[in-house]
Amino acid sequence: MSGVIADWTNGAEAIVYQTCSACGAQQYFRRSFCAACGSSELAEHRASGAGTVYATSLVCRAATPQTRAHVPYNIVLVDADEGFRMMAHGDNDLVIGDKVAARFTQFAGRLIPYFAKTT
């Protein structure tokens, strides 16, 4: 795996995905191999944060005491413009097909990507 780029999982305001040099597949989240072909030749890239809502689920019951203050909150699947799909938080009024952009916010003491509708 070449060039590790900091992302939200280690405190940077960025979403990082991988592209396989062998087959061209994109994947999110980091792995040491390509999920499509098994190659270990992966390059990391910073995503634009733009995408389209694929699915949405409003959480109305806190999973932990730390998330109780955030209820209700929305979990969304976003098809990123770069070609991968990721799960993240988003505005409660998002619906399937909305064009969105990521920003970063604190949730239960952690930095997370958060999607909002683009105008």
Rg over CA atoms, rounded to whole Å, is 15 Å
Regions with little confidence, pLDDT below 50 for 5+ residues: none
- Into which percentage range does the β-strand content fall? 35-45%
The mean pLDDT is 92
The rounded distance between the terminal residues' Cα atoms is: 37 Å
Quick tags:
globular, three-stranded antiparallel β-sheet, 119 residues, mainly beta
Structure, described:
- The protein is mostly beta strands and 119 residues long.
- It has two domains: 39 residues; 68 residues.
- It is 0% helix and 45% strand.
- The chain contains no helices and eight strands.
- A five-stranded mixed β-barrel has the order 4-5-6-8-7. The chain has a three-stranded antiparallel β-sheet with strand order 2-1-3, with no helix packed on it.
- It is globular, with a radius of gyration of 15 Å.
- The mean pLDDT is 92.
Produce the secondary structure layout.
Layout: E1 16-20, E2 26-27, E3 42-46, E4 50-59, E5 73-80, E6 85-90, E7 99-107, E8 110-117
Parallel strand pairs: 6-8
Antiparallel strand pairs: 1-2, 1-3, 4-5, 4-7, 5-6, 7-8
